[in-house]
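Sequence in, structure out. Go.
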Amino acid sequence: MADQVVIEETPKDGFARIKFIWPSPVPFIAKIVDRQLKVSFARPIDSNFESLPGKLIDYIGRPQLSNGGTTLTLPTKNDYGLNFNSRGRVVTIDLVDLKSPPSPRSRTVPIAKSIEKVEIRTGQHSDYGRLVFDWKKKVPYTLLRRGNRATLKFGRAANINVSNFKKHPINNVDSFHSEIQGDKTIVKFKLPIKSRLRDFSSGSKVVVDILSVRGKDNTVVGSKISTLSQPQASKEVVERVGFVGGQSAKRPLLISPSIRNQANTPLPKTSSLINAGLGVS
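Output:
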């Protein structure tokens, strides 16, 4: 028997969102092939689809069901990026603009601009490398570290311009990439296992420093990007939550003794870095 599913459609700034509200969680797969959005569910879907295309008429056409009611196909009117996720019994599909926003002829309030673009600046110093994310407006963010992998999650969707990072990379950051997940922006990169992370905000800018650790002979150690097995990484987690314009707060998580023993040199204060001519402006 097919499940009764409520469908909601919402145009956003730079993307379109479709929600499928099921009576219980359901596995699914979504993909775009030849300008056809195909969503395959593990159970048949029952809906009259009256809301589609509705407000998303500039993005999609009328839907069609196939494979015994388990596959929903919607023709798309342009080339789009695809994001999708599920939370409980709600399945969310996002079509992200890759070029200019679609025509606003069917919207009562037209979209005035495409998704925000954020530039990155880099700086290489003797003891640390710096990443500066030049947001146009203040944005909340979180920074999570697992072993030699770091994840920076911003509270707004944006296209991160990584071209400057590729032209001017810093020594202790590798495998740098970004992606949009729903209304969030995710940045991931690798760093040396013995390095330390430091983050702060300055106006609308978000700054992340990757600091090297000095040994007893004052030489820099831990500059090599290494890999970790998953069991080790699960024991070495540091997370920080930052809000631009306010104080950053540490979440107390388990830190392994090896990480504590490597912290031979205290982190420099923000003020001392800026006074030394290493500001972010």
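Check: The chain has two domains: 3-97, 116-271. Residues 257-262 form the longest helix (6 residues).
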